[in-house]
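Project standup — Tuesday

K.O.: blocked on the structure for the chain from last sprint. Re-posting the sequence here as requested.
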Amino acid sequence: MTNELETRMNWDLSSYFPQFDGPEMRQFRDALHRDLAAVQEEAAPLVPLNAINAAEWEKVFLQSEDLVRRLSHLESYIGCLCAADSRNEAYQKAEAEMARMGAEFEKLEVDLFRALKGVEEGVFRAFVAREAFEGIRYYVERLRQRAAWTMSREQERLAAELGVDGLNAWGRLYDTLSGKLEFDMEYPDGRRARVPMSQRRSLLENVERPVRRAAFEGGNAAWATVEDVAAAALNGIAGTRLTLNRHRGVNHFLEVALFQSAITKKCLDAMFEAIEANLALPRRMLRLKAGTLGLDRMAWYDLAAPLPLAQQEKIPWERGKALVKASFARAYPALADYVQTMFDRRWIEWEPRAGKRPGGFCTGSLLTKESRIFMTYQDTLGAVMTLAHEAGHAFHHEILRDARPYANVYPMTLAESASTFGEMLLIEGVLQDENTSDAQKALMLDSELNEAVAFLLDIPVRYEFEKAFHEERAGGEVSVSRLKELMIATQRRIFGEDLEPGGEDPYFWASKLHFYITGVTFYNFPYTFGYLLSRGLYALFKKEGAEFLPRYEAFLRLTGSDTAVGVARRSLGRDLESPEFWAESIRSLQEPLERLEALLPSVLPQH
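H.V.: unblocked you, prediction finished:
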């Protein structure tokens, strides 16, 4: 039986299940429900871990690991369907069912926390030293740390149940809202069109400023019609987290973000200290871009603008695939081979189509050990970069394919380093290709610097906004007008005088889906962390050549087995708690900036 959705989707999902809601999927789901309930029943009567019941708790932990493997399979499949067809009510219903199943798994985790909370050190060490935990000891230690932030068993189980119709429901509401939202686009020639919000990004990358402005204004007009809903979702998500933090004994909301990112406050502060000390470099990039566009200063809708070359080359899907593979092949043949496998097996959903959710992601199943990439390809260099980015994620999954499910759980701070490493391979590959024209090189360098501006200015805006918002949310709901004020003030502070007066984006808090992701708090700063960490990795690669790749793969294999600081120290010999590491990564951007400055006079139209 073939996948009935193949006519409407690019990717082949048949290795998950032959068809949606077919007998195989129903049997898998029902068995997962039954087994999850059975393990809960086994765990419920057990007292916390001690020397006598260690074998019984070992069995529960191992069964929970198997459930994680199977849950990832079903969750990934449903997530793929909902992203590719956000208007399908059957998929939405299945997504809601997955949320309820996730809540049931959270209840099982409550018992795992209960087993470990307050356990004597000697008893715990003897427990994790058992042969059954070989390869996942770090994960069990993380569970013990997390157990310190727990309420009573009854309260935690109630919180898990309420999360389905509370915290996670707000996230699903936003996903549905953004997936269905359309805006009126008025082109400079007077033509009008109704455009899905998922295609707004490509319009903001248009070379013509009036097109970018129209997409920006039209998009924000659409967000204004749902601003109260978006604000309610944002307040609901943050309010729930803050309330749970208070009852769980979390002293500050950032503590959860730091734990989820597997970093220390010292590490995060070191990174932002380095960014603050080197703001002159990304601001210089802004001024260079403004000059190429004939502007005194940049508006928010200019940030992703391409260079105003005489002819903008469109990059069709097949050409984009070829660019990514060829760039990978020059430097990292194993990665190129893996990407070709993804192409051959149709693991990528790429086509622009109404009803798709905005954004891009990589997902995968721990059962089949396969990945899938979701994106909306728009024939632009930015879209090619997205493909390389998500391919980096997928290769990370591939490197960990033989690791146990619990060793496949790694933080965003480390996940984003693999994706950015993929982007940098693409950039270097295009620049080294003898068939690449000076204009194409300039476009690639410009794209690299656009990313630098995003990671060093845009994402710090998101981080500072989220901090300010959470601080105010602790005192009550934050109004739409205040959200806009906070966003404008933060953009103005981080971008400084290089942002055009009145050129801020007051609705960025509504249009950026990262603020509405419920599984991870402060979803934004890990991108900058991974970006700068990856630049450090790439600097070592350029210095050592192919001999570095085994160390890179060792780095990827360790990501689910240590903190970010520990992984970097063990595989690279570098200290992430030192501002100097981050400063070196930032300063490495001097080279592409100078290369672009040297190229521009020969490629820009002469006036």
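K.O.: great, moving the ticket to review. Residues 438-473 form the longest helix (36 residues). Residues 421 and 534 are 6 Å apart (CA to CA).
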